[in-house]
Description:
This protein is an alpha/beta fold.
Amino acid sequence: MIFRARQDLTLGGVPVTIKVSPRAQRMRLKVDPRTRAVLLTVPRRVSERRALAWAAGHRDWVEAALAAIPEGAPVLAGSTISLFGRPHAIEWDPRRPRRIEIADGRLLAGGPAEGLEGRVLRRIKAQALETLDRETRALAARAGVQVVRVGIGDPVSRWGSCSSSGTIRYSWRLIMAPEFVRHATVAHEVAHLVHLNHGPDFHALVEMLLGADPGPARKWLRKEGAALHRIGRATSPA
Ligand SMILES: [Zn+2]
């Protein structure tokens, strides 16, 4: 597959990224609600010129799709952020210590107003790593497997990944999701330590480790995942 960011066609202020796909049967335009990327998939037999002309004909659709994406949600004093699926109000008092404390339904923040968002996000990411590391190791022990390392990151399209070397990585944003969603993601990745595929044995192990059907968690992420991706991102580009 070939990816190219085009500067010669801009739709709704976003340069169109062309993906030439040998498998695509027809041209497709997609707007990614998380990255605001405009992606044009083109079958190999279609010329780039024709594809760009076709995409340009869909300018209204792209502009409407971009406009429908909610803007980034800044993390501010007085605003609320979800942790473990429960709203936590960010209470800022400059007389408090800089270290942010996660209390019951509250994030107690101190220090200067400047850099508050960065400090809150760093605290939440540290919490995400601590929680996900603990839960992953506990579940791996139950599955009778070793996890080499647990890490967090901010991938756009995945909530977790597992490498053949035994390293599991998660999106830190999972810590904002309800616990059943986080637990299902952990069970999914731990099951990959045993089966590096999505076969029937893998799915049976996920369900056994989770003790529940992971379907509702997948559904939740499909519906609410884009909202998690807005938190702490700059508002939409002008
Ligand atoms: Zn998987």
